[in-house]
Amino acid sequence: xxxxxxxxxxxxxREYGRLLGQGEQIQAAYRLIRDVILFTNGRLIFVNKQGMxxxxxxxxxxxxxxxxxxxxxxxxxxxxDAELTVWVSGxxxxxxFKFGKGVDVYEVQAALAAYVxx
Length: 118
What we know:
This protein is of the alpha+beta class. It has two helices and eight strands, in the order E-H-E-E-E-E-E-E-E-H. Strands 5-4-3-2-1-8-7-6 form an eight-stranded mixed sheet, sandwiched between helices. The relative contact order is 0.19. InterPro entries: PHb (IPR012544), PHb_sf (IPR037063). Residues 1-116 form the Bacterial Pleckstrin homology domain. This is PH domain-containing protein.
């Protein structure tokens, strides 16, 4: 899926605000080339732009309560990417995302831990 880079939550809200429910706010956002991961105060939203033009878009919503576990792998000496893997109830395979060195993977882990533990 490519390497993720941090996106300002305000800019993400302006672009994806129509996806949010009443009282829902984007806490963090990451762009993976054309795709986006949104961390809201109630769920993860995966924005998957499809096709050559990217006009067809899939919005996948994962409530934090559906996340059964997750792992964060930090970057190493030769492998410069950090990786987030999320297991979701009812899905046979986990969702996996790579983050470039500019992303604080501990921040990602802390956000998930705070919401999944609720």
